[in-house]
């Protein structure tokens, strides 16, 4: 019987929601791993809406759950309804929506607050000793909620211009967590906390390398589940 995995989204689109390629990659690897997946998102208003063609703010409002339903092909539930007892693991793809809608990292950095249902979900899986997978910017959720944990967002220096957001590693360290430097096609496993992370689009890399890195994260999550 396949593992039961909850996938938590933050909208639809890299600049104000979930990164579409990361969400799709996670779903493909979960499918290949024989997992049974259910998708969730918080039923809240987005912090902002970005015109992805122009890269500028749009004067409109959108709902995180409604927008996430685009990625889920309509088959999605309110995150408030997620019960950790029904799943073996949880995975959070990245995208600016994580830093805007699931928490306030985009505005407040390490002083951010985490959405109550995101926080309770993370706490519940951690308490039950069930694995948590995070990619791209979403490892900051673990860094904020679980002081002392180990995560990766890639490198802590902008190596060859490929890691423009390398300062995120320093902010993670300031939260009392350990940042582990990894390449884009790798993931890090914090065995003590059952937290698996990979940098994905925190690195400027070809899409297939990001896809492969997310694959290692999913595989490690399924091993721990």
UniProtKB/TrEMBL annotation:
Organism expressing this protein natively: Anthoscopus minutus
Name of this chain's protein: GAL3A protein
PANTHER family: ES1 PROTEIN HOMOLOG, MITOCHONDRIAL, GLUTAMINE AMIDOTRANSFERASE LIKE CLASS 1 DOMAIN CONTAINING 3A-LIKE1-RELATED
InterPro entries, per the entry: Class_I_gatase-like
Source superkingdom: Eukaryota
